[in-house]
Amino acid sequence: MLIKKNKPWLIPEREATPEAVYMDRRRFLRFSGALGLSAGFLLTGGASVSGFFDLFSGGGSGGGRPRPPRTTPSSHLYPARRNPAYTLDRPLTDEKTASVYNNFYEFSSRKNDVWSLSSGLITRPWTVEITGLVEKPRIYDIDELTRLVKLEERFYRFRCVEAWAMAVPWTGFPMTELLRIARPLSSAGYVRMRTFMNKDWAPQQRLQVWLPWPYEEGLTMEEASNELAFLATGIYGHELPNQHGAPMRLVVPWKYGFKSIKSIVRIEFTDARPKTFWNTLAPDEYDFTANVDPSVPHPRWSQAKERMVDTGETRPTIKYNGYAEYVAGLYGKR
Ligand SMILES: Nc1nc2c(c(=O)[nH]1)N[C@H]1C(S)=C(S)[C@@H](COP(=O)(O)O)O[C@H]1N2
Ligand SMILES: [Mo]
Question: How many independent structural domains does the chain possess?
Fold first, then answer.
């Protein structure tokens, strides 16, 4: 058949620039299954596979497409079983919109530039250090860590402090699983999480020297122990693409998006409240707790409403982003 004879996946590197390529992994897997291609072929990863898919997608060189997730030793874990306990009152956000509208200041402060500029992030090998006040401090390889847990898919609302919102199918595991593995001591009051520091990958860590790199975020132990706190390794049924915080990021859906730190390299249990990136920069605008609350305006704008990023539809903001039944108890009567 034509496809095999012409080996279209062997297209020249220059025709498979990350910027030009978008791979819908599910569709690709269907095609590869039909062609009898093996996991070994998939593991060759990168440009050749993407280029191959491109020929079927009708996509190709029309810029402005997100970079595909690379194939990794954990790719076969996707799509994971969906946990039906977490449902939504709104349709899922269109993947193409979500993947080109990102906050990831290490790469750019312009949302629609992040997906292309984050191609410099190298996510294998990748280690996550568990340290501080724990019984089992250890450095885990990311693929080792995901094998110690059971990945699941959850649909969550997501609300940025800038008043835009999404509805996202994340794949990952609850933070409580990490606590089970690490066994924090009773003296631990907080979890501090840190993003990579690498000026070769992330131009803004080199250029914006006044920012408090590396990006750090934190939760109280009570918050980290809540069933909603989630460590995401995937999105839309495949691994996280770089712009969403590969290979692992936090998702705390009752808090403003800046709490949901991306590309985590270190998780430390501590007895002191951690200094965090946005809170250090502008404490009056971004507080440590940062729970979604329509009645507390940002100093420069209202939080009463939110705008869905794909449809532009406006909805009223809901306290705790709609998750009061899970988390209101953490905060008493506030
Ligand atoms: N390391 C790091 N994590 C980060 C950010 C960042 O700039 N750097 N931005 C935060 C903000 S403000 C938001 S709204 C979300 C955006 O996540 P998304 O791009 O996957 O939608 O990531 C959060 N995590
Ligand atoms: Mo945000």
Answer: 1
| Ligand 1 centroid, distance to 4 Cα (angstroms) | 42
Which ligand is nearest the CA of 261, by number? 1
Does 286 sit in the ligand 1 pocket, CB within 6 Å? no
Among protein residues, the one whose CA lies closest to atom 20 of ligand 1: 244
In a domain, 2, yes or no: no
Question: Are 204 and 137 in contact, with CB atoms under 8 Å apart?
Answer: no
Domain for residue 73, yes or no?
yes
Q: Residue with the nearest Cα to atom 24 of ligand 1? A: 261
Cβ contacts of residue 41 below 8 Å, gap of 6+? 32, 49
* Separation CA 25–CA 3 (nearest Å): 19
For residue range 247-293, list pLDDT tens digits in order: 999 999 999 999 999 999 999 999 999 999 999 999 999 999 999 99
